[in-house]
Q: What sequence folds into this?
């Protein structure tokens, strides 16, 4: 069968390639059965021009598998509940509870869901608000860390314990973390001590419960350390801060910034990324900070934005241009609900992003999971809606 140039929608992140992938000269790039981990890499390959002997039926089968799968967004809600349950079991003191195996399994779930629909996973960081804040933060951090680690080329076996570290880094202050989420008063001296000591206490707790993987324990112990020595609990500097701890720590700071508290709303994601990027060369690795901005995009999925058309929209998919994501409009310029959630490409002047809106402006009747329930991969641009 002759090689044909592959088009958007014929191969998908998180699914096995249905054929060998070759470049324009016919040189083999990827073998059939390999998995491309995220949508960014798929888009880059399609844009540069790739070829394969993909028959129509194989393309249809891949398409069917992609859109018949259970909603990743909904499954992430279930994962957050499972992480909360695992944390309670871990702290109950039951020596028979398989803590390490449980969290490695949950880390594998994070990897699977990010591989299936990374944009929906990032959207859940912004939009899912379970009652258990500690579990919410743990899953949020693991999602962002997973995407950064994949982008850095870290293999699956190495990523698993690092994601388990992200899911367990705050076990030693689980109850306090939930308390502080709803607390509007300044921290007491006792609370400050508990916050400062929780990284090492968490590592000690995990070791006592059977975790022996050194990078898992080191990442938990160091996730609040910063390159300039301003972190805690040890005030480590430079190369003494493990690279994995830097990745998880930066993901933790970003997710904490964009999450609301009793005393403040969440910081807009683009502002949070800007603040992290400006800290490069002082507290964080400059290359890691730049990579985070590149991977999440200037307007990450889940961000609520106003378009040049006057419409209110939610970012649902990153694009090759970090400042021009794909969005779905939820309100017309006059504030009328748009139940069809029309897709807008912000590269189109009529739909350019004018500003980021506070999360509080999200209408309560929007079925958020539906934002990722239909395809956003085609290239059509809809005309501005009229009221």
A:
């Amino acid at each position: 069968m002759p090689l044909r140039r592959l088009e958007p929608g014929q191969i998908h992140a998180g699914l096995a390639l249905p054929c060998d992938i070759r470049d324009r000269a016919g040189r083999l790039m990827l073998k059939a059965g390999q998995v491309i981990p995220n949508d960014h890499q798929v888009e880059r390959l399609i844009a540069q021009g790739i070829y394969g002997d993909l028959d129509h039926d194989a393309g249809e089968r891949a398409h069917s598998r992609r859109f018949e799968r259970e909603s990743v967004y909904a499954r992430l809600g279930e994962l957050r509940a499972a992480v909360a349950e695992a944390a309670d079991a871990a702290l109950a003191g039951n020596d028979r509870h398989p803590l390490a195996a449980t969290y490695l399994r949950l880390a594998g779930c994070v990897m699977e869901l990010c591989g299936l629909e990374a944009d929906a996973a990032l959207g859940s960081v912004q939009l899912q608000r379970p009652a258990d804040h500690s579990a919410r933060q743990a899953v949020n951090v693991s999602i962002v860390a997973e995407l950064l680690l994949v982008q850095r080329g870290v293999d699956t076996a190495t990523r698993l314990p690092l994601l388990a570290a992200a899911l367990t880094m705050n076990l030693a202050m689980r109850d306090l973390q939930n308390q502080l989420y709803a607390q509007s008063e300044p921290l007491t001296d006792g609370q400050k001590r508990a916050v400062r000591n929780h990284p090492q206490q968490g590592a000690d707790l995990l070791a006592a419960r059977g975790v022996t993987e050194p990078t898992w324990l080191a990442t938990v112990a160091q996730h609040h350390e910063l390159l300039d020595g301003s972190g805690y609990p040890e005030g480590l500097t430079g190369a003494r801060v493990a690279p994995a701890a830097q990745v998880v720590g930066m993901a933790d700071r970003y997710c904490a910034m964009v999450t609301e508290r009793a005393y403040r709303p969440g910081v807009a994601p683009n502002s949070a990324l800007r603040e992290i990027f400006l800290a490069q060369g002082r507290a964080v690795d400059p290359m890691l900070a730049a990579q985070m901005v590149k991977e999440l995009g200037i307007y990450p999925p889940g961000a609520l934005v106003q378009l040049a058309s006057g419409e209110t929209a939610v970012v649902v998919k990153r694009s090759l241009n970090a400042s021009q994501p794909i969005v779905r409009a939820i309100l017309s310029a006059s504030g009328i609900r748009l139940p069809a959630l029309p897709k807008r490409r912000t590269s189109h002047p009529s739909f350019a992003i004018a500003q980021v809106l506070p999360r509080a402006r999200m209408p309560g009747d929007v079925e958020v999971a539906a934002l990722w329930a239909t395809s956003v991969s085609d290239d059509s641009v809809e005309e501005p809606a009229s009221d």
Observations:
- The beta strands are 4-5, 21-22, 28-30, 51-52, 304-307, 312-317, 326-331, 343-345, 353-356.
- Residues 58-70, 376-381 have pLDDT under 50 and may be disordered.
